[in-house]
Write a structure and sequence with these properties.
434 Repressor (Amino-terminal Domain); mainly alpha; Lambda_DNA-bd_dom_sf; 250 residues; 3 domains; XRE family transcriptional regulator; 12 helices
């Protein structure tokens, strides 16, 4: 499954590089665009369809595998010390965050209180951490894998939970561009699994939109966060009214 995911991610990268869209893929595979999006989201492309997409990109399947192996060498996770370094230096964290999201160095120094000298020092740190490769002219090349993840329950995730999440939720969610919904139901394990798949698909779609929008001018873009959480759960105020402790467990 891990290899399949890497192949699909490499395919997406090549499509973007060659400015090919899902519409081009749909025409090649003689499918609807919606069907192609679903195949990519579910990572369920057959070998025959992979071959056809490679043909569209003028690549041999072996070329795609080679590109995938190059991506594997990218940074997939930071060390505990590196994550601690990020959360202990807000300017370093800010620089990493915006570079990962496609902003130019000049965009960051023009809009935030970071001097060019400070910025170059921050870039050098991120280069040592193998998040970026620092190029001449303060240009950067991202060298983190598409499968990059923060350490589970590590410093970054803890920082998010204690600092970012409460601030994000401290909103009425009624302003333009804001939305909030809370829905409950009684679901089977099968429905729960299906819903989680759809949530993951939505998260991937946001990441793809973020990549697509990197070519847009900064004035047209807004920092946007999406938070979705789901769990089998009963509010304590209801649980206290139960006659007996339920025997079923998820």
């Amino acid at each position: 499954m891990h290899q399949t995911r890497l192949i699909i991610e490499t395919l997406k990268l090549e499509l973007r590089k060659q400015q090919k869209t899902y519409k081009h893929v749909a025409e090649k595979l003689e499918l609807s665009e919606a069907s192609v999006k679903r195949l990519f989201a579910e990572e369920s492309l057959s070998l025959n369809r992979l071959d056809n997409i490679c043909e569209l990109l003028q690549l041999e399947f072996s070329d795609l595998v080679s590109l995938m192996e190059e991506n594997i060498s990218f940074t997939t996770e930071l060390s505990l010390a590196q994550e601690n370094e990020l959360v202990s230096d807000i300017k370093l964290l800010l620089m990493a965050h915006f570079l990962i999201n496609g902003l130019r160095f000049s965009d960051i120094t023009d809009n935030y209180t970071i001097t060019e000298t400070e910025g170059i020092q921050l870039l050098a740190k991120l280069d040592r951490m193998k998040i970026i490769e620092l190029l001449p002219g303060n240009r950067v090349k991202m060298i983190i894998s598409k499968n990059f993840q923060w350490i589970k329950h590590g410093p970054i995730q803890s920082f998010y939970k204690t600092v970012i999440q409460p601030e994000f939720l401290n909103s009425s969610f009624t302003l333009p561009g804001e939305f909030q919904v809370f829905t409950s139901g009684m679901l089977t394990r099968t429905s729960n699994t299906e819903l989680i798949k759809k949530i993951k698909r939505l998260s991937k779609e946001l990441n793809e939109m973020n990549t697509t929008d990197q070519s847009s001018e900064l004035e047209q873009k807004f920092g946007t966060s999406l938070m979705i959480a789901m769990r089998p759960w009963e509010p304590d105020i209801f649980h206290q009214l139960r006659r007996v402790e339920p025997k079923k467990h998820f």
